[in-house]
Amino acid sequence: MPTRREKIEAMLADEPSDVFLRYSLAMELDKEANHEASLAGLAELQSDDPPYVPAFFMAAQQLVRLERVNEARKALREGIEEARSQGDSHAAGEMSEFLASLGAAGE
């Protein structure tokens, strides 16, 4: 029986540009502790035109779990800016709260 990841990969073979499927695959890779592949997938989504705003937040959360807090702060700052430019004040607010919870750099 195919795993969830295998099912997503099969659907992606038919729809390689599907943003939600690409995001779902990155989330599955995170669950499997394949963090570098997951973060690479999220980085691709952040580079899309337009960037996929949830990818910034999920990357930041994953980076914090990996104790890569400075990278997480960078992802959040970029995500907040992108969310605002796309008119997504809810996402910008959530990322701003998470950024504030991380404290200032170097703490």
Task: Give an account of the 3D structure.
This is Tetratricopeptide repeat protein. InterPro entries: TPR-like_helical_dom_sf (IPR011990). There is one protein chain. The mean pLDDT is 95. It is globular, with a radius of gyration of 14 Å. It is an all-alpha fold. The chain has one domain: Serine Threonine Protein Phosphatase 5, Tetratricopeptide repeat. The termini are far apart. The protein is built from 6 helices and no strands. Helix 1 packs antiparallel against helix 2, helix 3 packs antiparallel against helix 4 and helix 4 runs antiparallel to helix 5.
Summarize the structure.
By secondary structure, this protein is mainly alpha-helical. Helices cover 75% and strands 0% of the residues. The chain has helices at residues 4-14, 19-31, 35-47, 53-65, 69-85, 89-101.
Secondary-structure topology with pairs:
Elements: H1 4-14, H2 19-31, H3 35-47, H4 53-65, H5 69-85, H6 89-101
Helix pairs in contact: 1-2, 2-3, 3-4, 4-5, 5-6
Strand content: under 5%
**What would the principal axes of the Cα set say about the shape?**
globular
Largest sheet: none
DSSP E strands, number: 0
**How many angstroms does the end-to-end distance come to?**
47 Å
Q: Could you estimate the helical fraction of the residues in percent?
A: over 70%
Count up the helices.
Answer: 6
Uncertain segments are none
Order of helices and strands: HHHHHH
What's the CATH class, please? Answer: Mainly Alpha
Oligomer: single chain
- CATH topology, by name, is Serine Threonine Protein Phosphatase 5, Tetratricopeptide repeat
Going by CATH, the architecture would be Alpha Horseshoe
Mean pLDDT: 95
Whole-angstrom Rg: 14 Å
What is the number of independent domains?
1
According to CATH, the homologous superfamily is Tetratricopeptide repeat domain
Protein name: Tetratricopeptide repeat protein
